[in-house]
Amino acid sequence: MIQRLLFDLDNTLYSARFGLEEKVAQRIIQYAAQYLRLSPEETAALRKKGETRYGTTLEWLIAEKGFADIEDYYRAVHPKNEADTLPPDPELRSFLEALPCPKAILTNSNREHADLVLGKLGLEGLFTHIFDIRWNGFKGKPRPEVFLRALDTLGTKPEDTLFVDDYPRYAEGFLAIGGKGVLLDEFDEHPDYPHPRIRKLEEVTRFLEWGASG
Ligand SMILES: [Mg+2]
Fold it and tell me: Cα of 38 to ligand 1 centre, how many Å?
């Protein structure tokens, strides 16, 4: 039985149609391109090569490109007005409040971004923990140790935890450690994904009875 819910933040607790994360991704590539003195296209191609080794572009820049100015990176990637288009979502708040188990967030972004987004959505105070990339030493999902560290802090086991993310690699990463990982595929972009998949966050209720045997 599911005892805990763990949610991704971006494009999971709000729709991808707001374009927020898309713009963040553009700023990340622009920033990395400037740092590497390459074109955005060259940078994106280079980043793609290291995609499976590093959960985030920041992690890749630190590990392979000698990058160190993390705070400057975050200032550029997450400007103060980045979430201004995000409307409050009182329906989602009611839905999350009614769920029968405690909820937490695991994001590959930073805490300031998470707090800003949750504030705009009106979802403050609903989550027992917000595990951000700084907390994880700038190592991101889908690394097993990132998931396991969060679960350890929550005092729960993978098989008792439902994790929802809009990235197939991250949902699969949670399955790989024996957890219940669900892909949120809002626009049906991954019809051949072989594991549990939902189109709307509200469908998580289907999985709350997911037993320990899977
Ligand atoms: Mg996401």
Answer: 27
